[in-house]
Amino acid sequence: MSAISGIFEGRIDGLGENDLVVLEGNNQGYWYPMDTIEIKGNGSFSYSRDAQGYPDIYRLRIGEKSLYFPIDSIETLKITAQAPDIDTNHSLSGTPQAANLEHVDSLLRAETASGNVQSVTSNADLKRELGKMILADPAGIVPYYIISKRVGGQPLFNPAVKEDLRIIGAVANAFNEQRPSDPRTTYLRNLFIRPAPYRKVNEDECWRDATMKSAHLISIF
Prior knowledge:
Elements: E1 6-13, E2 22-27, E3 30-36, E4 44-49, E5 56-62, E6 65-71, E7 77-82, E8 90-93, H1 96-112, H2 124-136, H3 141-148, E9 150-151, E10 154-155, H4 162-178, H5 184-193, H6 203-216
Parallel strand pairs: 1-7
Antiparallel strand pairs: 1-4, 2-3, 2-5, 5-6, 7-8, 9-10
C-alpha cells in the first residue's frame, strides 16, 4: 500500500462570525469530532495530521451540514465550498478518489432534488451505475463509502436485497483479500454474513459469486 498523508486545503466562503468548522471521523457508521479547522479571514484553510496508514472517509461539518471527502494518498486534497449549504455546494479535487466521491454525491443530490428521498434506494439505473463503480475497484475507499451510505435513514445498498447483498459481498471479499488489517474489513464481512431472519438468499452462494466478481471484475449488469 502506498503512503497516505492527512493533508487537505481549500476555501469556504460565506461563513458567519460564529460558524465552527469541525473535522469528523467515522467509526463503522458513527461520526465523532477529531479537530476544529482554523479558517482565515478570506475563507482559506490548510490542515494536516498524522496519517492513519489506511484510506479513510472524513467530513467537515458546519452546524447540521456536512461535506464528505476521502484521504487515500500522499496527494493534497483540495476542497472549495459555499456556506451554509456546504453539503450541496462544494467541490473536491486533487486525487482520483476525491473526484469519484464527488461524482457519487452529485448523482445522489440529483436524485434527491425531486424531494422523493425514498426513491433513491429503489432507483435501478442509479444503483446500476453505482454498482459498476464499486466493481471497478471493490477494495477502494469510495466503494466502502457507497456501501455505508444511508439516504433518508435507509441503506443505499441493503443486505436484505439479494442483488445489493452480492455487491456488498464483492466489497467485503476485496477488503478481506487486499486490506486484511483495515479496521473496516471485519465490519464489511459482518455486514455481509450477519444473521437476518428476513434474508431469503443463500449466503454461501452470494459469497462465492462476490469472490468471482471482485477477482475478475465481472459486471452483473
